[in-house]
Amino acid sequence: MKQPLQRLHILALTSIEHIGLLVIAIATVVSMSSEVVNMITTRTVDLTDLLKLFLYLEVIAMVQRYYTSGEMPVRFPLYIAIVAMARYMILDMKSMNEWRLLGISSAILLLSLAILMIRYGHVRFPYASKEARDKEAAGTD
Hints:
There is one protein chain. The chain is mainly alpha-helical. It has five helices and no strands.
């Protein structure tokens, strides 16, 4: 009796997850299109516009990666955070004092070091393949 109910819960959660990812992807494409239309209308492209487009592409790549592999790498949100902080720094650089600039730069450095550590961990201590994990979970060799 527990199996059908458990399957129903998994199906419901998976459906919610896919709907959420679809909403994120559609909202990202709409925002990206709006930004491109704005650049065409004003006939100017600033560095901040390019960084914003890069953020949109990173979000789309993250959703695409999840759909193709079923996994969400931790690095993608860290990349997005770095680009967002760089964009913030570029936009408000004139109004920031030295301490704020130093703080944001330090945060970017820490995020970069975190990505480096994660990459090192993946190379040095790789995950087992999905098949091996499924076998282990099922208790077979």
